[in-house]
Amino acid sequence: MAEPLFQQLEKLQQEFRGHPPVASWNPDLCGDMDLVILSDGRWIHEGTEIQRHALVVLFASILKREGRHYYLVTPVEKWRIRVEDVPFLITQAARDGEQILLTTNTGDVIPLDNFHPLLLKPFGDPPLPIPYVEVRAGLQGRMSRDVYYQLIDWAEPRQPQEPPARLCQLWLKSNGEEFLLGEY
């Protein structure tokens, strides 16, 4: 009989620093877990918000995306969960020389670069272009409002080079790359 999920997670957390190699784990689907990651970043299990941040961080470390579905995986178990938008929120931004560093609500620190690009995607009602960032292995994070405003302060306004002619575009530079932050 397989060990309970929490015991497996504790062992994995001790074994791996950072994130376990979930991309190489392909167990059979065990079923659907009553767990949803809300668009505001809260994790809800069986109708109750998970209050222990360490547990959210632990679950986030074994999160995997396949197509449009999200799973919590271990080497021997795979549980489908629901994600309203994306699993992470970008809650902090910092500049370190020519690099912008972003921090997620689960503590991942990622550079804004060609491996972690900024993408504009529609969000909300009415849908507006909001910046998202590739966090890891197909898992994205959406910018919090505070971080978005911080990045706007750091952005360079430019006139668009191609039609349709907008009034202005905002560009960010990080790690030798440029990212379109928005247009107005």
TrEMBL record:
Q: Which Pfam families match?
A: DUF1285_C (PF21028), DUF1285_N (PF06938)
Start and end residues of each DUF1285 domain: 20-86, 87-180
**Listed InterPro entries:** DUF1285 (IPR010707), DUF1285_beta_roll_sf (IPR023361), DUF1285_C (IPR048342), DUF1285_N (IPR048341)
Record-given protein name: DUF1285 domain-containing protein
Q: Which organism is it from?
A: Microbulbifer pacificus
Q: Organism classification, top ranks?
A: Bacteria, Pseudomonadati, Pseudomonadota, Gammaproteobacteria, Cellvibrionales
